[in-house]
Amino acid sequence: MLQAQDKRDYIWFTANNPAPEGGFKTILFDFHDHDNIVKSGESVFQFNRNIAIVNSRAGELLFYSNGCAIANRNHQMMPNGDSINAGPFFDDFWGGDCFSGFPGSQDILALEDPTYEDGYYLITKNPLVTDSLIFTPNLSYSYIDMALNDGLGDVTIKNQTVNGSFMFTVANLNAITHANQKDYWIIQTEFYDAIQVFSLTEDGIQHAYEYIPESALIFGFNDAGTSAFSTDGTKFALNHAKSGVFVFDFDRETGQLSNLKTYPVFTIETIQSMEFSPSNQFIYVCGSIELF
């Protein structure tokens, strides 16, 4: 959860239009200047739907990723910052070309190292394709040390697999700080009922436990949806493109999920996203052409 005067969310942008001089034009949102928030900017590469933009607590841009590459604040590729999520899926379906970024929504996270102020984990998902299913068997991470390369950062570990064998859905990757305000809980859904919880501590990323709700949550490839934590961290919610919204109690001390409540939402097409209100009293659900 963001603390007072924490400006890590002050700069973010999208990048889809090539610039004549190279790179891409961006629509930049800069909340340092409340009278002129929306500006033009630049990016060394384009984004598909995987976007991770990391700022310092003072609101200074540090680095960003489109899921297959990592760039520094000067819009240059970081040393060893290429070939993120490299593998058969990217080669076969995207031609191994990072031009437009890695596909998939809510499939990337950037988290601070709990024990080293200049270190960051970039957590990603690299899918496998079978005859009937596209799924991710595990989480991967790359590690960025911002103290290197004259403060511009260097990727010191790349595409390291977290131990485990799972059937993760597309999307729904999320995280929240532990109650100790130092470590993190990382949550990811599987296709068949289970929700997997990982911890990020001084020992790195480790599987913490598996939660299987009493009511089945079976996701199809195109039905995974998104997830969100309440602003106070006491609730965790998932949406399913066709079945509605599932809300759990969440314990930030233990990482435990409990008390599932289901809220059917009948959209004309599919649910695209959702978010808690600042008061946590409501959840806003966005369908393809409707808002609930």
Describe this structure in words.
This protein is mainly beta and 292 residues long. The chain is 2% helix and 42% strand. The protein is built from one helix and 22 strands. It has one helix spanning 88-94; strands at residues 11-18, 24-30, 38-43, 52-55, 61-65, 70-72, 108-112, 119-125, 128-129, 134-135, 139-145, 154-161, 174-177, 184-189, 195-201, 204-211, 227-229, 235-240, 244-250, 257-263, 271-276, 283-287. The strands form seven sheets. The chain has a four-stranded antiparallel beta sheet, with no helix packed on it. The chain has a four-stranded antiparallel beta sheet with strand order 13-14-15-16, with no helix packed on it. A four-stranded antiparallel beta sheet has the order 17-18-19-20, with no helix packed on it. A hairpin with a 3-residue loop joins strand 18 and strand 19. It is globular.
Structural topology:
Elements: E1 11-18, E2 24-30, E3 38-43, E4 52-55, E5 61-65, E6 70-72, H1 88-94, E7 108-112, E8 119-125, E9 128-129, E10 134-135, E11 139-145, E12 154-161, E13 174-177, E14 184-189, E15 195-201, E16 204-211, E17 227-229, E18 235-240, E19 244-250, E20 257-263, E21 271-276, E22 283-287
